[in-house]
Amino acid sequence: MIRVLCLRQLLGLPQLNIFIADKLAKVKYSRHLSRGALFGCQYRMYSTANVDHEDMSKIRNIGIMAHIDAGKTTTTERMLYYSGLTRHLGDVDDGDTVMDYMEQERERGITITSAAITFHWDHHKVNLIDTPGHVDFTVEVERSLRVLDGAVAVLDASAGVEAQTLTVWRQADRYSVPRMVYLNKMDKPGASVGLCLSSIKQKLKVQPLLLNAPIGTGREFEGVVDVIMMEKLVWNSKICEDGIKFEKKLLSQSDGKLYEDALKARHHLIGQLADIDDSIADLVLADTKLDDIQSEAVRKAVRSATIQQKIIPVLCGSSLKNKGVQPLLDAVNLYLPSPMDVHHSFIDFYRTDLCALAFKVIHNKQRGPLTFLRLYAGALKSGSTVYNINRQCSEKTSRILQVYADDFQDMSTAVAGNIVLIAGLKQTYTGDTITSSQSSARAAAREFHKTKATDARNSEELGAPILAGVEVPTPVFFCSVEPPTMALQKQLDFALECLQKEDPSLKVDVDKDSGQTILSGMGELHLDIIRSRIANEYNVDVDLGPLQIAYRETATESTEVEEILDKKLGDRHHLVKMKISLHPDPSATQFKHVILMSSREENLDHVKKHQLKAIESGIQSGITNGPVLNFPVINVTVHLHSFHLGPGTSIAMVSACAAQAVHKALKQANTVLLEPMMILEINTDEDKLHGILSDLAQRRSHVDEIQSRQDTRVVRAITPLAELMGYSTAIRTISSGMATFTMELSHYEQMMPLEQAKAIERVTGFAPVL
What is the value of pTM for the model shown? Predict the structure, then answer.
C-alpha cells in the first residue's frame, strides 16, 4: 500500500498544503501524475483561512536552535516550502533564504539575528523563530527561548553534540523549554544515529527516544522508518527533486531486516516509555503484547513525556536533500506543547487582562521602532493604549503586525498564545512587561500581594508581578568607536542608541578621561557586524579602535576600613560614618546585597530601608571600577559593621561615602586582574592535529580531551581569550584551511603576575614595576 504526498505545483495551487490521507485509506499510485489529473490519489488540503487562530491548542511557538552550520536555516526553509508559504527552496549558499534576510547574513552565510515567521501545517498555526548558531549572538537565542513553548535542536548527524549545542541546550534548560532533536545531514559520510544518541546521553544528560530510524546512511540515505506507526517513508529524488512528494507504506515481514529492526526499535521505545508513563506501564504489566499496543497510545505517552521533559524525541533526515522534514513538522504538532500545555503562574494575577513580554526590539526605517511581544494572557487590539510596568508609563500602539521574516501583515487583534510585532512603542525595551492599563497593573499587584505578603518584609513595596527578563551574557571584548567627522557624532549616537535597544549584549559607554565612546560586545565578529550595520543602515563610516579584552578584577585578601564623610554644602552639614569589610568570595559572581553584621557593640536594626539601598547603590558604584585597570570587580562580598548618619544628611551623601569606603578597601585588599577563559573546540584532520596541539601549548591552553569522530579529531581546550586574538587566521595557516573552531566564555581566572604585567602594559602603554 503506497500513499503519496502530491505536488502543489501540479495542482496549480502553491499556497495550499496537501497532506497524506488517513492511514487506512487505499491510494493508487501512478507515476504519471499531471496537472488536473491525480488518478485516484486521495489527499486533503486547506487554506490558512480555515485555521482557528484563537484555538490555543492549535498553536505552536517553537524555535530552531543548534551549533553553527548544523543546518538550522536550511531546515526552516524546507518547512516554509512544504507548508506552502514559499514557492522556492531557499539556499544559504545562494543567499536567497527567507529567514536570513539581512545583507550581512547573506554575505557571510550565517544567521546573525533571530527571525520570526508564521506558517500553517496540518490545521496548526506555527510561530517559528530561527536562531543564530554563532556564540557571538547567543543573546538572540536567549531571548527567543525565553518566550517559546518548545524547541527543535538540530544536530549534524556526523558530529553529534558540539560546543554551541551545549550552550543553547543550557539556555533552554534555564527556561524549562521542552525539546526534540532532529539529526540532520544523514546523507553525509560518517553520519551515525548511534553516535548521536550516545553523545546526547553523555553530554546533554537526557534520555533520547528514537522515533524515526534512517533507511540507509551517507549517499545511500533515502528515507526514514516511523517507529511508532511502523511505516516506511521514502523520498525518490529522481521522481521528485524538491522532496514534496514521497512514498509511504506500512512495513511487513516481506521487508526482511528493515521490518525486524523497526519492530525491535518499537519494542525498545515502548520499554523506555513504560519506565516513565503509567498508561504504557499498565499495558505492559497487563501482559499486553507489545505489537498490540495502539500507536495512538504510544503517541500520547510520547507527548506527555516530552512536555514533562522526561525524554527527548529524536528524528532524522537530510534537509539539504529534501528528506525527512515533513515528519519533523508532524512531530512538532504531535509532541511539542501548545500555549495551553505550559502554565505560567503569573497569568493568574492578570486574569483576563493583557499580559505580554517584550522580548525583542528592531528599528525599521519606515515604521520606526518595532517591538516583538509574546502574549501570555488577554488580547490586544490595534491602536489600543498599553501600560509598561517596568517603565511605569503608558504608550499607544499604532499597528499590530504578523511577522513573516522581513515582511509584515496587519492584524486587527492578537490573542493570548501568539507572537506578534507592535508598532508605536517608543519607550519599551527588551524584557519589559506590558499590560492593558495602569489599573490592570494595580489589580495584578493586589493579587500578587495576597500570595507574597507573608514572605516579604514590606508588602506595600511589592509592585505588579513582572515577567522575568532576559539574562544578558558578559561582554568579553571592547573597542573605541569614532565618526569620520564631529558633524556625524549626533548621527552615530542615534545609531548606537537604536542598535543598543535592538541588541542587549551591545554595551555603549563613554570613557570619563578621554571622552571616547566605547563599545563592548561578545566577540570580534559581533563588533565587526555592528560596524558594518552602522555604515550600511545609518550611513556613518565609523572607525573602530584596536580590540581589547574585557578583564575583571577581584580582591585576594579580606580587609576592613572605616570611612567618614564630613562636608558642608551651602547651609547644610552632611555627616556619614560607616565601617565595612570586603572579602573574596568566588561564588559571588555579582554584587547583590550588603550583609549586615550586627554585634553587641553595634546594632544595625536602626538602618532604614532607603538608607540600606543608598549604601548598596554606593557599593555597586564603587566596584564598577577596580584599582588596577578600572575594570569591574567581581567575586567579592561586602559586610556592613557600623553606620551613623548625621541630622539633615542627604541620601546622596550616604552613597558617596559607601563608594569611597569600597575604593579604599579595594586598594588594601591586594586586587588582581582576572582574565576571561574560553572553551575552545577545534575540528581538524588527523594529520594536522600535532601542529594544532603545539600551537595551543604556546597559547597557555589546557587541553581537556581529544575525541575521534570517524576521520576527524575534536580538540577541546580551555584557553585565555587574550591568546586567541586573530586565531581564525592562525588556525587557517596551521591547518591549510582544513580546521574549524568555536569558542565560548567559560569563566574568569586569576592571572599570573607576569601575565598581569603584560596586560597592564598593553592597556596603558606603561610597564608596571613588579
Answer: 0.74
